Amino acid sequence: MDENSDLFKWEEFMSDKNIVVSREDIAREVARLGQEISRDFKDGRLVVIGILNGAFIFTADLVRKINLPLEIDFIRVKSYGKDSCSSGEIKLTKDVEISVAGKDVLLVEDIIDTGCTLSFLKDFFAKRYANSVSVCTLIDKTERRQKVVEVDYCGLEIKEGFLVGYGLDFAERHRQYADIYHLIDPHGDK
Ligand code: IMP
Ligand code: MG
User: Fold this and answer.
1) Is the CB of 109 under 6 A from ligand 1?
2) Does residue 19 lie in a domain region?
3) Is the pLDDT of residue 190 over 50?
4) pLDDT given for residue 187 in this prediction
5) What residue's CA is closest to ligand 1, atom 9?
6) pLDDT over threshold 90, residue 89
7) For the CA atoms of the chain, what is the radius of gyration?
8) 111: CA distance to ligand 1 center in Å?
9) 149 lines ligand 1 (CB under 6 A)
10) Residue 82 counted as domain residue
11) Can you tell me which atom of ligand 1 is nearest the CA of 116?
């Protein structure tokens, strides 16, 4: 897909029929998750860690719905091989800069697919002596799960499909949309 190509039909792509999660639905879920997190961590030392790049918009919106003192940092990982995961296939490309020892880490993810990224990161922060490591995802995509990950805060469950928008990309494109779309054919013309 290349939106500069003549084959790309913006109007068709951006029309309502491809929207999977609207900006209203996103706002409702973000507010609900923020409330739950505010309630659960009121006696803790919360560190919100967004997983780049996909979670940058969700993290920014979520922290503004958490009514608690907190710290924010970001981490970036790269996964090799999308269809299988064994240890070693996830590589850290940007670490956090704050100490998490004794603190309550909340990992913020845009979408969980195989579960490899989050199972790697949960272990990673547990080894750094975090007091607790919890997971918040906007979307839990269950179809291709390979590693069991306990999800503490989940916006929406979606069974299948490739999604873009609200931070989610295909080849670094489409992140900027306010709604989330189903990309019908990532390798096709449309
Ligand atoms: P996994 O759970 O380790 O397989 O990987 C999750 C990561 O894959 C997410 O953080 C996204 O960056 C990416 N990903 C998985 N499914 C989608 C999708 O439908 N659209 C865009 N990115 C996705
Ligand atoms: Mg991601």
Assistant:
1) yes
2) no
3) no
4) 61
5) 111
6) no
7) 17
8) 5
9) no
10) yes
11) 3
Query: Tens digits of per-residue pLDDT, 11-34?
Result: 666 666 689 999 999 999 999 999
Q: How many domains does the chain have?
A: 1
- C-beta of 165 in contact with ligand 1 (< 6 A): no
Confidence of residue 64 (pLDDT cuts 50, 70, 90): very high
Distance 55 CA to ligand 2 centre (A): 6
Q: Which of 113, 121, 137 is the best mutation target for the ligand 1 pocket, counting ligand atoms within 8 Å of the beta carbon and taking the most?
A: 113
157 Cβ partners below 8 Å, 6+ apart? 139, 140, 141, 142
Residue 40's alpha-carbon distances to 20, 67, 85, in angstroms, are 29, 11, 32
Verify whether ligand 1 is closer than 6 Å to residue 116 (CB atom). yes
Read off the CATH number of the domain in which 155 is found. 3.40.50.2020
Please, what's the b/e burial string for 6-29 (b: 16 or more CB within 10 A of its CB; e: otherwise)? eeeeeeebeeeebbbbeeeebeeb
- What is the residue range of 139's domain? 24-159
Tell me how far the alpha carbon of residue 59 lies from the centroid of ligand 1, in angstroms: 16
105-133 tens-digit pLDDT? 999 999 999 999 999 999 999 999 999 99
What is this structure's pTM? Answer: 0.90
More confident position, 188 or 31: 31
